[in-house]
Amino acid sequence: MKAAQLFLALLVVASCSSAFAVPFTNPPEVNYPGWVTDYPYQRNAFIDFLVDPTAGGGIPGVVYSGYDDPVLQGSDFVQISGDLEWIPAIPNVPRAGFIGIDNSAGQTPLTAEMVLHIDNWDDPNLAKHIWLEAVVGGTDPDLFDLSLRGPGGYQVDFDAEDLQPIGMEGGLFWGRANAWGLIQPNPPWEELVMTLDVPPGHVAVVDTAHIATECVPEPGTLVLLGIGVLGLAFCGRRRYN
Prior knowledge:
By secondary structure, the chain is an alpha+beta fold. It has one domain (3-240). It has 4 helices and 13 strands. The chain has helices at 3-15, 28-31, 69-72, 219-240, and strands at 43-47, 63-64, 77-82, 85-87, 98-103, 110-119, 127-138, 144-149, 155-160, 164-169, 172-184, 189-198, 202-216. The strands form 2 sheets. Strands 1, 2, 4, 5, 7, 9, 10, 11 and 13 form a 9-stranded antiparallel sheet that branches. It has a 4-stranded antiparallel sheet with strand order 3-6-12-8, with no helix packed on it. β10 (164-169) and β11 (172-184) form a beta hairpin.
């Protein structure tokens, strides 16, 4: 990231966005080995689906609070295909705003895909880390499939953890899913993809989606950072002695 761009982003975040920073229940710096940046991270996008995401125009209703978000958020978007729909409310569920499929009264299987496109700095960094936390509900936890993709020619690794149970609401189970991704080298963009395959008599919805990303510095930057830390430690020790 260029110095001028970083300075601009920090000014904007300090003036407005940091007041609305949304924390993770399971933060990446605790749960993702090798995570570098501190909260609120380089990119931090939280979507509660209180606004219809199928309305178009970026990612409707998203709350941005990352360092780089003020500059990069303009080219983010959500892409929805298949039978996915926006559901403002579900009976007997104290939550509101969902994206998913209600096939409880259907006769045929329904499928859908939601793509969250997150833009990035086109810098030659070593890798990109991605962390996802989603609260989902439904009749069967196996109806959800998460994946990660980047431009062609990039190495993509992705691993989704099992759902952490939250409880039963409105006859549906609710759980929190976390997933981590690694793309090498740092790509110009990444996309998180959620696929739903919902047979007749079943329901699968997403309540919230929360994404954090960071660019991992190239080896030379890491070496310089390490030298600086060692130098500070040495100076501190000399003062102490």
